Amino acid sequence: MAEETAGSAKRWGASQMNESAKKGDVVLVTGKGTDPYIMGPQGSKLPWDDASVAREELKKLKTSMR
Fold first, then answer.
1. 64 close to 54: Cβ distance less than 8 angstroms
2. How far apart are CA 14 and CA 54, in angstroms?
3. In this structure, are residues 59 and 15 in contact, taking their beta carbons and an 8 Å threshold?
4. DSSP letters of 5-65?
5. 11-46 pLDDT, tens digit each
6. Which residues pair with 45 in a beta bridge?
7. Which of 53, 46, 65, 57 has its CA nearest to residue 18?
8. What is residue 35's predicted lDDT score, i.e. its pLDDT?
9. How many other C-beta atoms are found inside a 10 Å radius of the C-beta of residue 40?
């Protein structure tokens, strides 16, 4: 589905952002705001929250650095 592809691309972007940031950098996530879904064809919806995904990816990065 198109919305799943969009979700995968957004998650990939968040992981790249976290991997590229260096100590002292500020990372700004500009996203969908409060809209809780990625809208797909024929009214389909994929639950999505930019802030949660950014936190998840940051947690993965911190875990991999140990």
1. no
2. 6
3. no
4. HHHHHHHHHHHHHHHH--TT--------TT--EEE-GGG-EEE--HHHHHHHHHHHHHHHT
5. 787 778 767 878 888 888 887 777 888 888 898 898
6. 39
7. 57
8. 83
9. 16
Query: In the prediction, which pLDDT does 14 show?
Result: 78
Residues constituting the chain? 66
Domain that holds residue 50: 2-64
46 and 38 in contact (C-beta within 8 Å)? yes
Query: Does position 64 have pLDDT exceeding 80, yes or no?
Result: no
Is the pLDDT at 1 greater than 60? The verdict is no
Domain total for the chain? Answer: 1
